[in-house]
Amino acid sequence: MKDKRLYHSVADQIKRMIKDGAFPPGSRLPGERELAEQFDVSRVTVREAEIVLQALGYVRIKTGSGVYVLDPVETGAQGLPNVTAFELTEARLLFESEAAALAAGQISDEVLNKLDELVETMSNDDPSENEAAQLADREFHLTIAAASGNAAVRYIVETLWRIRTEVPAVRDVHDSICAIEDVGHRHTEHADVLEALRNRDPEAARQAMQSHFRGLLGSMIDVTEEQALEELRKQVTESRQRYLNSVSHGKSA
After folding, report:
1. Which residues contact 171 (CB under 8 A, 6 or more apart)?
2. Same structural domain for residues 59 and 107?
3. pLDDT for 9-27, tens place per residue?
């Protein structure tokens, strides 16, 4: 378990224990310290593993309370909808903007401090820390959804993030964006949302989150256009090669 993606190994082990019944639905996972000792890893690694499990729908992290195992019915085991990355981002713009507005009116200093740490993690431009930055990005949005105080909004945002991480076509588009994303720009957008929340300004929080997703939609258009052009280039190259091969065979005959 010395791989750079150590938290994936921990997440997989906890997932197996959940499926085997060691942690039944509704139960609370042992604390970070106990799990860290059990798996011989750091508490940070355990925390990252729990974030992954939440994104996959196995657990729910309740700030200040603990991590609870979800019932299979709650996880949406019946499958996720087949949507495009554009459709997902449009939905996230709608729901996460309102979640931010709701959170602004009641967010605690404790949660603001947590968001500040997550934004700081996202600002790291070291390539080796890219996965940690992506995990922080996800946790940033899910924390705001939880801070909205609306269980329905929180459930929807968590489900949207499951689509983001589990539907291959959507995940691939986002991975392409992350590969070319400007870290400074990402930091600024999330910092703007945090500033609005810190000021307890619902309208500013809504607008900052909308701006973030509009930027994401723009990046998505750029990436998909480049992918389409690359596919076209590939098709043209293959067609040219087939033509040259046919000409060559015709001459040799």
Report:
1. 164, 165
2. no
3. 898 899 889 988 899 999 9
